[in-house]
Amino acid sequence: PLMYNHWSFGKLFAREETMYRAGYSALAYEIVINSNPCISYLLEENTMTMQALVMAHAAFGHNHFFKNNYLFRQWTNAEGILDYLAFAKRYVAACEERHGREEVEAVLDAAHALMDQGVFRYRRPPRPSKERVIEKRRKRMEYEAEAYNELWRTLPAGIEPPSAPPTPDPEEEFGVEDRLPEENILYFLEKNSPSLKPWQRETLRIVRNLAQYFHPQRQLKVMNEGCATFVHYTIMNTLYERGRIDEGSLLEFLHSHTSVVFQPAFDDKRYYGINPYALGYAMMEDIKRICEAPTQEDRDWFPSIAGSGDAMAALKDAWANYRDESFIEQFLSPKLMRDFRFFSLFDKADDAVYRVSAIHDERGYREVRKALARQYDTAGDPNIQVAGADLKGSRTLLLEHRMHRGVPLNNALKEQVLAHVELLWGHDVRLEEVAA
Question: What is the pLDDT of residues 324-343, one digit of tens each?
Answer without folding.
Answer: 999 999 999 999 999 999 99
